[in-house]
C-alpha cells in the first residue's frame, strides 16, 4: 500500500567522506557501479545472457525530476517543505466523494499543463546511457511523470505507482489517454479554461522556479496537481467513462450500473459507475500483486541497488530497499537530504571508495552525466 512516512529524517552521513563534493560523488558512484565481479557484457549481447547479478537496479523517486521543473516532496523547495499543511488525496476519498473528485480534477486540470510540457532531464538520459553500456539491469520508479518511459524506452522500467499519461475507469478498468480527458475538462469548464489561459499569460508556467510560481498564485506538486488559493472547486465538472456510458457494466451485486450525465456530458452524482481515476496508485491504495512481484523480481535479479532521488518515505519503496539489504546487496543512495532509516543500510561502512556502498547528497542531474563520461 502507498502510505507516506511523515516522521523527521536526519541529515545524511556521506559515505565515503570523499563523496561530499561533486567530483567525489561522481568517483564514488563510478566505483559502486563497476565493483561487480566481471565487466558488463558488450552491448550486442545485452538481453542474451540471463545473469544480471553484475548489474545495478535503480530505484528512483521524485527528486530525480526536480531538474525537469517538478516539485519533489521533501527537498528544499518540496511540497511538504513549502506547504506544511499539504495533504494528498487518498484513494477512499477519491472513490467515495464526488466533491473530492471535483477538487482533485480541478487541481489536476491546471497542473497537467506544466507536467505535459516538462521533459526528462540530464539524469534520465544518463540512465539511458548507463543502460546501453550494460551497467543497469532495470529501473523501478516511484514517479508517475513517464520521464523514464520517454528517456529510455529500451531499458526495462517498472512504474511502481503507475503513470499520469492515462486514466483508468474504476468500474470497467478501461484506459483513456490523459490528453483526451484534458480536452473534455476544457470543454466542460470554460471558466477554468480561461483561468488557465490567464496563468499562461502571467508566465507562471514559463518559470521552473517554485518561488516565482507561488508569487503568481500557482504551484505544481509531484503527482501533477496544482495549488490555487481560494479556487472554487465545487464548480468543476468532469466527464464519465465513455466505455461505461456506452455499455454500463454489471456491478458486484449483479445489477447493471446506471451512468447519468448532465446536458453537457459531465458525470452526474446519481450515477453508480463510470468513475475515471488517474492511472496512479493513490495514497492509501494497494499496489497490484503483479506489480509488487515484478518489483521484487527486479531487486532479486540484480547484484546491487542504487536509490536516486528518493527519501524512501513511502513504504512501497522502502520495503524494496529493505529487501535488497536483507539479501546483502550493496546499497547506494544518491539523494539530496535524509532517507528513511538509511543508517541501518550503512552500519559499519565508513571507509573505502564506494564499492561496497555509497551515500551521496548531490543533484543527480549533475552527478550521473559525469559518471557516464568516466564509463566510456
Give a structural overview.
Helix content is 34%, strand content 12%. It is of the alpha/beta class and 376 residues long. The protein has a 6-stranded parallel beta sheet with strand order 3-2-1-9-10-11, sandwiched between helices. A 3-stranded antiparallel beta sheet has the order 5-4-8. Helix 1 (22-33) packs across helix 13, helix 5 packs parallel to helix 13 and helix 11 (289-301) runs parallel beside helix 12 (315-326).
| Number of helical regions | 13
Low-confidence stretches: 44-48, 77-83
- Major sheet strand order: 3-2-1-9-10-11
Tell me about the biggest sheet?
6 strands, parallel
**Could you report the average pLDDT, rounded to the nearest whole number?**
87
Q: Helix/strand-derived class?
A: alpha/beta
- Multimerization state: single chain
- What value does the Rg take, in angstroms? 22 Å
Give the SSE string: HEHHHHEHEEEHHHEEHEHEHEEH
Number of strands: 11
Q: What fraction strand?
A: 5-15%
Per the principal axes of the C-alpha atoms, what is the gross shape?
A: elongated
Distance between the termini: 40 Å
Share of helical residues: 25-40%
